[in-house]
Amino acid sequence: MLYIVLLFVVLSFFLYVLLGGADFGAGTLELFSGPDHKKSIKKTVYSVMGPVWEANHIWIIILIVVLWIAFPDFYNIIIVYMHIPLTLILLGITLRGVAFVFRHYDAVKDKSQHLYDRMFEFSCLVTPIFLGMTFGALLNGDIQTLEQAPNANFYDLYIYPWLQPFPILTGFFFSALCVFLAATFLIGEAKDYEKRMYMRKAGIAIITVVVIGMVTILTGYFQGNEFTQQFISNPLAIGAVILSGILLYPLWKVIQIGRVIWSRFLAGLQVLLILFAAIGTHFPYLIITKHGSVSLLDHAAPDKVMKVLGISLIIGGTLIIPGLLHLLKSFRMIKVLEERD
Amino acid sequence: MDNLDAARMQMAFTLIFHIVFACIGMVMPFFMVLSHAKWLKTRRPEFLTLTKAWQKGVAIFFVTGAVSGTALSFELGLLWPAFMKHAGPIIGMPFSLEGAAFFIEALALGFYLYGWNKIPERFHLFTGVIVGLSGMISGILVVSANSWMNSPSGFDYVNGAFLNIDPVKAFLNDAWFAQALHMTLAAFAATSFAVAGIHAWQIYKGRNTLVHKTAFNIAIVFGAVAALLQPLSGDVSAKDIAYRQPVKLAALEAHYETEKGAPLYIGGIVDEENETVSHKIELPKMLSFLAFGDFDAEVKGLKDFPKENRPPVAITHYAFQVMVSLGGLLVLAALVYFISLKKKSWQGSKRYWLYFALMAPVGFLALEAGWIVTEVGRQPWIIHNVMRTKDAVTPMPGMIYSFYMYVLLYATLTVAVSWLMARQIKVLNQSPV
Fold first, then answer.
1. What integer pLDDT is reported at residue B365 of this predicted model?
2. Which of B227, B244, B250, B314 could crosslink B270 through cysteines, CB 3.0-4.6 Å?
3. What is residue B266's predicted lDDT score, i.e. its pLDDT?
4. Low-confidence spans in chain B with pLDDT less than 50
């Protein structure tokens, strides 16, 4: 059962990054577009992501709930020492969610739309940055717990670990990754001029991803962070990153010949490979503190809890996943694309 | 304000807001679906107009409920990490099932909102029913997790360790049925009276009365039935609390002395320092009867419990009095509505509509008071008789700033959502059927 629970942890994490990430990316894309493009992106985003956008974000709730039930000690370190970025993420999620609904369901369309748009776009930019920062901080090795450092001050415990170059760069890396996902996903929904716009933006995003990714790794390397050392000496991780890079070529080709479904799967796969490289390097030791690594499996919940949770997840999964696929199929995400393919 | 108080205020504050959004998001789909079903059956345009107006309300409240709920799922850990570390594995089951139910609700809502003229009519209606049912189920599941804090079970507590965890037993703890029943009825009563009240105000003002009367009639039926059933469920809850949490019963009734044939206090001013209650009305032997079904049963007073184990008496007692009185007003309003079905002339009077418009906030005020009773009444424990709230709070200092941020955020959201609702109604009134 432990493996089923772990599978759901990884699945929820991946799906949140892919689906939720694409949602965040779409808003960021809108932010960095001119007034004419803004309108068309808004429309496309609404028709593509409207029906699924809420479902996309439930993966993070599933992830949190599974972590706190099954891996309470691991969760506890994240929730205590990442309190500030997590609070900012929450603020972002809240403002983004309400802005999305307000701008589509306000009965009157007037100047307030402008406010909802800005609220939506900025929270789409900021939230993944803090998500990435949190993830980067967990791997960077500056976290220390009160037990490890009883005399440490507020700054050292709760701010310093995430406000460092490596986590900050990880934040920007993740944000750029979201924009790449969104742009690639949206290419299939557009025609002619707009299609070229999304292609251009996807290109800019991927260049940004590569550049920030390199800088992040170099920063980690020169500051001697344990994660980076292991990352660059792990053949599996390096292989995954290289494969992800190689896939850019077929991605570019399938976009050009209009194989939209393929382009989505390829872009998703590329992101998954990068995540796989990042997580796989140190799995299950996903929190690296000043005083050693903390394994996801340290003090996992007792077998009986795992069993009940595993069964709940299987039942939930069999209800949810076909429903989600049917929803995606019913509202163009798959169907319309199939027609075009 | 120290860190613990700030964390408690933040938790209380976010719950107070989330509950309103969540209840409306949970109950309104039922109105929407009923109106939708009537549209399919009669094809009268007012039902379609109403269904479409209500679905926008459902979408707005669902999302505000969902984001404030996401915030809460983080906050449980952010504010009470020591609680979540131990309680997480024990009460995880209802939370994970709630996650599934919530997911299904989001999927069904996706179908419903975007399904007009795209998916078969009956399937479309069915997805609306799923929205309502899965919302209600997730509400019940969350309450089950809360009831475990009042009635911890499914583990052995040995020398500070939580052993032999049985999540199913924890899920089906002794308090869950009474609490889930009471809360579900409260959600229906509060939302229905609020929605009915808003439409009654429009009728009072003479705006688009056909649609608003249709709306009023759909909403009020749910509310009136729930309000009439609520005292019965309150009785189940009272007996449950008397048995399981006698100190909470003593606090909400403000009884300091242990006595047989205890009277019921109505009103009263609590003096916590001198441990007395003045200016109260006493109904002889009624408390013993209501709590134990026996006029001569012994009710334990607060003085029988160590001071450090007593909840704040005044807040609990006043909140309880407020809840019961407001509940009484709802019962009365329910009777007025049912009588008006016979005496049709009542609905012709403007005063009738003004009366229901004034009743709009009553259910929610009662519901909030009820949560104060159950949450403040559980103090000083976060897990009754097992873990104290002060031992669960985050070690991170400066929670006061976090509290200020949430106050600002939720106050803004409340203003924004109310403003959006006002705009919805305005537009609805501008396009009469």
1. 95
2. B314
3. 87
4. none
Please check whether residue B309 touches A, CB under 8 A: no
Helix (H) or strand (E) holding B280: strand B276-283
Task: Say yes or no: B66 contacts chain A, CB-CB below 8 A.
Answer: yes
Give yes or no for a cis peptide into B397 (omega within 30° of 0).
no
Distances (CA, A) of A162 to A141, A242, B49, B400: 10, 28, 51, 21
The alpha carbon dihedral of B228, B233, B235, B241 has a sign of negative
- C-alpha B332/C-alpha A72 separation (Å) is 48
Nearest beta carbon to residue B63 from set A62, A70, A101 = A101
Looking up tokens 């694309």 gives A337
SS3 content of chain A, % helix, strand, coil (to 5): 80, 0, 20
Pair B131, B65: CB distance under 8 Å: no
Name the DSSP letter for residue B368. H
Q: Which of A98, A330, A331 is the closest to B64 by Cβ?
A: A98
Q: Which of A51, A102, A320 sits opposite B103 (nearest CB)?
A: A320
Structure tokens at A183: 């742009």
Nearest CA among B185, B190, B188, B182 for reference residue B366: B190
In whole angstroms, what is the distance from residue A191 CA to residue A31 CA? 21
Count CB neighbours of B120 within 10 A: 9
Which candidate, A204, A231, A201, A194, places its Cα nearest to that of A216? A231
Q: pLDDT tens-digit profile of B335-370? A: 999 999 888 888 888 899 999 999 999 999 999 999
pLDDT in tens, A48-73: 776 666 677 778 888 888 998 999 88
d(CA A150, CA A146): 5
Q: Which two tokens stand for residue A281?
A: 């390097």
**Strand runs labelled E in chain A:** 287-289, 292-294
Provide the number of CB pairs (under 8 Å) joining chain A to chain B.
193
Q: Report DSSP state, residue B348.
A: G
Contact predicate A336/A191, CB 8 Å: no
Instruction: Decide: helix, strand or coil at residue B1.
Output: coil
For residue A170, CA distances in Å to A127, A274, A299 come to: 13, 12, 28
Minimum Cα–Cα distance from B94: chain A residue: A312
Residues belonging to chain A: 341
Amino acid residing at B87: A
Which string of DSSP letters, residue by residue, matches A103-150? HHH-SS-STHHHHHHHHHHHHHHHHHHHHHHHHHHHHHT-B--TTT-T
Peptide bond into B89 cis (omega under 30): no
Looking at residue A335, its pLDDT comes to 38
